[in-house]
Every structure is written in structure tokens, then in C-alpha cells.
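Q: What structure does this chain adopt?
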Amino acid sequence: MSVKLLKLDTFTKSPKKEWYISKSVFTFGERTILHNHDFYEIFFVQSGVCLHYKNNKLYSLPEKSVQFVFPEDIHCFSSDGRGGAVIVNIAFSKAFFQQFKSDFFNGIKDKEAFMPAIPNQNWSVIMDKLEWFSRSDARHSDLLQSILFDFIYLYEMYLAQQSDMGLVPSWLQNARKQMKKDENLSVGLKRLVEISGRSQEYVTRQMKKYYNQTPTQWINHMRLEKAKDLLLLTDMPVLEIIYESGFQNEAYFYSLFKKEYSQSPKAFREQNRRMFLK
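A:
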């Protein structure tokens, strides 16, 4: 796949400007080119659901989600096939980055730097700042810094909530991590219980307590994510994908997939995979 390098001054029209803000509206099936940058980027999904392909991984980003992108990240965007999507993104130079909290962002480089759902109150504040920042007479570095500080604060809160303020048992965190491996995910609930070293009933109670999901719900979600990636990134027949993802019942898979993505696997592939093949 060819990758295009995007340069900040192409958008700012001046090498002296250190940031740029834009709003992108994706209609049904529309996508960006596969690219990387000479700048950093943070984007906000204002409405709809956006598919984000980044470094050979596919993210389904809902409304009110945020993700940070490093210059070397290879990525592209599209709506998810169920309708349109609107994203607002801020691009800023490496020079600006170096003088602003670069230690924090370098610390999250190996993380996804993604928040799936910003609380309504915080989201409204950020949207107001973005609206003000987008005005030509208000693009001041202090406002950009304020938006980035909001991201830092909310991301740190998100990480804390993910671990339930550090109270999630280490055995459960480790079990979830190990279950993301293909050889464990294909086995499913039995393997999760084995890795946990606890009874199935106890594992279920702890999953519901800390993650508000049953083990089966979480495993099915992970398997659907794998199936989605295989549909978009390979030419494997759907039947093979079903079993490769760990499902043993075709009808059950089709029911879960349509509930999750509002269309059949075949329709999802036809409408979205062009994004990843160019």
C-alpha cells in the first residue's frame, strides 16, 4: 500500500504557523488516503461512527471519542458503513510539541491514546473551545494548550477508570491481556477460566463488577473485532473468518455481527474494505 506524507504547511499555507484546525465530514463510504505526517494530530469524533485504520490496527470510534496521532503513525479514516461521520482535528508542529508537555505524550506513545466516550459535560466544554479556536482571530497558542491539557486530564482519568483506580485484581487484568492472543481467544471461556485460576462463577462476578460485562459478552466482542479486521484486511471467505475468529455457530455469528454493525459481514466488507486496499 502506498503512503502519502502530509506536511503541515500544506494546510496552514505558511511555514510560520504551528497549528491547523479542520472539520471533516465523511459521507457514506467516503474515506481519506493512507498517510502519515510531519506533525502531531489530535482528533475528536463529533458525530457518527468513524473507522480509523492506524498502524495495521482497525479502531471503531464512536461519537464523543478522541484519539492522539503521532507523525510516524500510518493511518486513514472512513465512516463505518452505517452512515456519515464528522471529525474535528487539530494538527500541530513538532516544534510546538517539544515545548508543550512532550514528556506526557511520549509516555503514551505505546498506548492507544484513545478515549472511547468523553462525559457530556467535558465534551461540551471541549466543543466550545474547538469552535472558538476555529475562528481565524482566536487561534492562540494558549487556547490550543488549554485543549491539549483537557485531553491530558481526561486521558489520565480514563486510564484510572480503566483500572478502577488500581483496584482491579492483577489476575483479572492478566487474564484479559492473555485472552487477546489468538490461541486463547479461539478457545474462549474455558481458557479464560484456566488462565484466571478461579471458578467460572467467580470470574463472571468479577468481570461484571469491574467491567460491567459477562465473560461471554467480552469474548464475543473481541471475536467480532477480529472478524471485522479479517473482513477488511484479507480475502478470506466469510465462513473461514467465522471459525478463524473463534465462533462455532454460523447463525450465532451472523446474529451478533448484524447487531454490532447493523449489516451482514458481506455488506460490511463490500462497503468498507476499499479503504484499506489502496
